[in-house]
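Sat 14:20. Reprocessing the chain from the morning session after the first attempt stalled halfway. Input below, unchanged.
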Amino acid sequence: MTAFLIDNMAPIMFAALVITLLLGYPAAFSLGAVGLIFAVVGIELGQFHPDFLQALPERVYGVMNNDTLLAIPFFTFMGLVLERSGMAEDLLDTIGQLFGTVRGGLAYAVIFVGALLAATTGVVAASVISMGLISLPIMLRYGYDRRVASGVIAASGTLAQIIPPSLVLIVMADQLGKSVGDMYEGAFIPGLVLAGLYAAYAFLISMLFPKATPGLPVEAIGFREKNGGRGLWSLGVLFIASCAFGWLMMRGSTVTGADYVVLTMLYGILFAFFVAVLNWIVDKLTGFRFLSAMAQQTTFVMVPPLFLIFLVLGTIFIGLATPTEGGAMGAAGAIILGAIKRRLSWDLIRQAVESTAKLSAFVVFILVGARVFSLTFYGVNGHVWVEHLLTSLPGGQIGFLIVVNAIVFVLAFFLDFFELAFIVIPLLGPAAEKLGIDLIWFGVILGVNMQTSFMHPPFGFALFYLRSVAPKETYTDRVTGKRMEPVTTGQIYWGAVPFVVIQIIMVGLVIMFPAMVMHYKGAASTVDPNSVKIEIPQIELPPLDFGQPKN
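Finished this time. Tokens:
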């Protein structure tokens, strides 16, 4: 038995951790306890040197001294303030009106707003709960299938995990030893593509099952002009003019890539906001409007979150701020937006600070436990065992990616994304790097995969969040006065299944088309480093005279 333990210390240690977590013990304490217990066992068996434990205080202090992790409380606070300031409610109402009588319009609105909230809040719980409280009653009121409505809301909320400023991307970058800015830039396009796949699914459902996703009735559509029209042409003209203005302002600029897109978007946003404000002033003074009510409302609702996206992500992408500094600016911007909307209060700030402190403490405790576990695991050569196991898989890089993603997908049934990021990623990163896999690409692939941990039954947290706000009993709709049936847990679970499939498809797309992520590197050099030769010419130096100075 002793010989078996000595030969298989690493796999037994990992299996013990999995069993402990499946028994329901908190992740932080499970990691720390398993690490310390196997440290003692390893010392007794001569497999673990006690000197390793002397590095433990320094490792714990390293967690507290990590500037990158400061971005987590900043982005969490920003998301909670925005969620409570009513920005999600304004966006959902306006965008829902914008789609009007189009079949599936409310579903498109939820997906669009989910992507916007993801790019401003970065917190899954805030997005799912906000949209569940606001849009689910409306979707049920107008006859949406409960499974479709539940799935769209839960899936759109989880976009906050892959679209920057996602908290999991911060942790992923930290665990892989990579730049958070690079991870953000690499994940941006896959996040938008995933939102597009959600919208494509909603379109398919609206075509195949039109009764499942009806459009809004005509009487429910507001923001009409005096002649009864909606004035959508005005919004279209404003959008085209804003894009053109941004392009003109950047014409001749040497800026390229993501920086070009960000600055063009900023100029377009400022132009649209200026036109909308001018329209409002002229309307108040003369009663004449050159923009429709729909165009003005959409602009006023869209500009604040878009400007906040630039303030956070734009400054990170163009190199003006680190992710921590961007998070700080985002938190300040969220407070300013809440004050402008006159929805900011000390009670709101207190609740946001308390929730931020709880989540931040949760993350730090898990990270401290993970440091204890990894110290012992490395001490018993566990990293060598994992590396040999994964690098010897058939199929090279593709075989490695398929097996790793299958393992992460199964583990996501039982572990949340923080636990996966702190436990699994440090073990997989070295093996991926040895196989020549770009770690930013690898991190984005796993980020999309771990998104399923929020969605698939029975432990998907997004499903729990939605269950907490969805009606559990028969209720009376406050607008129509009709008696409405509740949303069952089974309907929420079945509604999530198609979106889990879409997320798996997205993992495959990122693997098949790495350029979606690799653009973060910018323009690659065309010079072959191996062909570069540095020749230092021979120079004759005069003799050095350390004697007495001459007069």
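Residues 346-379 form the longest helix (34 residues).
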